[in-house]
Amino acid sequence: MTLEEKLQLLPTEPGVYIYKDAEGRIIYVGKAKSLRHRVRSYFQSNRALDAKTRELIRRIADLEFIVTDTEVEALVLEANLIKRHKPRYNVLLKDDKQYPHLKLTINEPFPRVMITRRVERDGALYFGPFLPASLARRTIDLINRTFQLRTCDIEIDGRLPRPCLEYHIKRCLGPCVRELCSPEQYKEAVRDVRLFLEGKNKELVEDLERRMYAASDAMNFELAAKYRDMRKTVLALAEQQKMATSPDRDVDIFGYHREGARLALQLFTMREGKVVGRREFFWEDLPEEGFDPSAFLSEVLAQYYSTDYVPREIYVPIDFEDRELLEKALSERRGRRVHIIVPQRGEKRDLVELVEKNARLAFEQRFRLLKPDMQRVLEELQEVLELPRYPARIESFDVSNISGTDTVAALVVCENGRIDRAAGRRFRIKTVEGANDPAAMREAVFRRYRRQLEERNPLPDLVLIDGGRTQLQAAADAMRELDLEAIPLVGVVKPQGRHNEVSHLLVRGREHEPIYLDAHSPVLHLIQMIRDETHRAAVAYHRKRRELRDFTSELTAIPGVGEKRKNRLLRHFGSITRIAQASVEELKPFVGRATAEEIVAHFARQREAAQAGE
């Protein structure tokens, strides 16, 4: 059917409409209380449209629609389709950084819980995001200690002769050994973890109590004690969650600042009466003409809460048309009433104004290129990388060579966001032959921190390694040999073919979770600055070593100049340039008159040849 024919057959039910261009790409997704009235309104000639909508309509070549039972279903479906297809003309929610989720792999025979920063449609269950990011690590540690799901990724067939250390320290049920844990016992633990992550603590406590009494009646007191301890742990956590989800303690607060086509949106996450996290979102291509803040906020909130945790209350700076509809959708998803509030006065309004102030500052720092608050940037770096301490001292390594010759490494030190040039070091790689950057990196890292330990000098809070997995692993091997595994190592990976950019970060021990930062992120700018400075230092030292080799080869090619005389000249004059400028009388004390005349004549011929070439 043609587009005109489809417009005639549109139903009056609620649903989602999908516009496509001439190449079949989805360019816009929208929801409607009545599909017929909403979609036809786009094509009414007397309708006043902004420039972006006029451009959208000009590109529409095809139409699809999905009918839903309710407006709430249409709202949820719209948000999911926008996040999946990222249509060009929709408001797209882009985060500066990816917060961790917990992934329960129920799509595996023996599920695991792991931390991930990407939510995918792979059959697993995802819970999160966790703010601050360290909360995800604490939660997974609690799960490992309490419910003892496996942490390995080996194939489980029950045929292994003995379990690993995780079983012996009571952090795994040992399903890899048939006699230790049956599939039914493991499924029971998985059900417990799922109830725990879904917040169904009352149901879990009752189930654990039932199992405790059943084990006791069967005279299996060790198992009964295990269920008793698990029940106590869940009860304690339930009390904490009860405190965290009271109306005045479980709040998300939004604020934004807009100028022209650019907008900065801030979200403050308040738990237990404290702000525990902040997220920033930025747009650069919003329509300046006809921009509707309420429609914008409606789309953003629907997308944000399509996968993320839903709090009890949400404070927003302005009202919007679909507020009650979104409240209903979020209440159904949470399982209890959710309130979206537009505070007008009092403490709640003060909180919204505080978030709006932070949005304005974020706008200034991002779009006006003002110097960011370095303490805030380093705190954000600590959160993004989940570092155990504030990264006041960062040390960075890079290796440089050409086809494996004259291999060197450079170290740059960054103290509180500023390069300390006096603290930098250079390394002439001694034990590596040929082009082997990982081995050269290992030597440089080992030599640096062995000396720091010997001289009792300060150690860094974070070490950056210019390179991918192999360089990162090589540096980790060196740190392990020195018993410095507690110092975080991060690989700075470049896009292929673009050496002046940063693609993503790899944290040692979590290499399977690459961290991608927004191109405008101040954290990325800091890492880029440190990496660039390290790269410049390594290349400059490599160039100096290569030039020295070339010049010294040139000296020994002059009749009468051997290794001893060459070294004597370089020690006295300091550089080949000063030797080339010296007179016979200045050179004579070190090499004799005849050789001094040969040297002066050699460099005179060079200068004549250079002038003739000009």
From TrEMBL:
Pfam family name, one: HHH_5
Keywords: Cytoplasm, DNA damage, DNA excision, DNA repair, Excision nuclease, SOS response
InterPro entries, sorted: GIY-YIG_endonuc, GIY-YIG_endonuc_sf, GIY-YIG_UvrC_Cho, RuvA_2-like, UVR_dom, UVR_dom_sf, UvrABC_protein_C, UvrC
Assigned GO CC terms: cytoplasm; excinuclease repair complex
Domain UVR, first and last residues per copy: 202-237
Gene3D superfamilies: 5' to 3' exonuclease, C-terminal subdomain, GIY-YIG endonuclease, UVR domain, UvrC, RNAse H endonuclease domain
Domain of life: Bacteria
Primary localisation category: cytoplasm
Record SMART domains: GIYc
Domain UvrC family homology region profile: 253-479
GO aspect biological process, one term: nucleotide-excision repair
Domain GIY-YIG: from-to ranges: 12-91
NCBIfam families: PRK00558.1-5, uvrC
Family: Belongs to the UvrC family.
UniProt xrefs under HAMAP family: UvrC
UniProt-recorded name of the protein: UvrABC system protein C
Protein species of origin: Pyrinomonas methylaliphatogenes
Upper lineage: Bacteria, Pseudomonadati, Acidobacteriota, Blastocatellia, Blastocatellales
Protein encoded by which gene: uvrC
